[in-house]
Amino acid sequence: MRASMENSVQRLVLVVALMLGGCALASVTQYQPVGADGGYTDLQLAPDMFRVAFQGNTYTTQERVADMALLRAADLTLVHGAPYFVVINQLRESRSFPSLPYVGGPYTSYGYVYAGSAASGIVVQDYRAELAIKLLREEPGPSVSAYSASLLREELRRRYELDKR
Q: What does the DSSP assignment read for 14-67?
């Protein structure tokens, strides 16, 4: 009886440790090239045009996803020697899908591995933002809604504390 009780306590401690460990590892998608946890991609469409996308995981807000896409656009603009860019087209998407209770397991591109019944009623969501941008080498006129790449980059890096790493 005592051995059975010790095994039960050990199992309970293990389950709690796995759950707490999973909570500690869960975090928003960082500003990074796309990987298992999301991130940005870009494609040069013409000498002065790019498509930029950012995919967040289920812990990343829609606002952060949109901001990280803008940050990547600002970085690309500066790397290519232009001070401004305009957004020609944008797309924001969200996906909702049922989630199952966390039981500990490897991390996938959409969160941790879950197990259990889909009838649990838990729904999670992730977001994606895509921009088509055009680089501007000269200051645009007042009728053009353009971003200053350096000002935008500085503001977003400050807001998300990206320079403190």
A: HHHHHHHHHHHH--PPPSSBSBTTBEEEEEEEETTEEEEEEE--TTS-HHHHHH
Nearest-angstrom CA–CA distance, 122 and 98: 6
Give the CA distances from residue 34 to residues 62, 74, 141, in Å, rounded to whole numbers and listed in that order. 17, 17, 35
How many angstroms separate the CA atoms of 130 and 139, rounded?
Answer: 24
**At residue 27, what are phi and psi to the nearest 5 degrees?**
-155, 165
| Predicted TM-score of the model (pTM) | 0.75
User: For the chain, what is the domain count?
Assistant: 1
- Asked if the structure places residue 53 within a domain, the reply is yes
User: What does the pLDDT profile of the chain (165 residues) look like in tens digits?
Assistant: 566 656 655 554 444 444 444 444 579 999 999 999 999 999 999 999 999 999 999 999 999 999 999 999 999 999 999 999 999 999 999 998 887 655 555 545 445 444 445 555 678 899 999 999 999 999 999 999 999 999 999 999 999 999 875
CB–CB of 17/46 below 8 Å? no
8 in a structural domain: no
In a domain, 11, yes or no: no
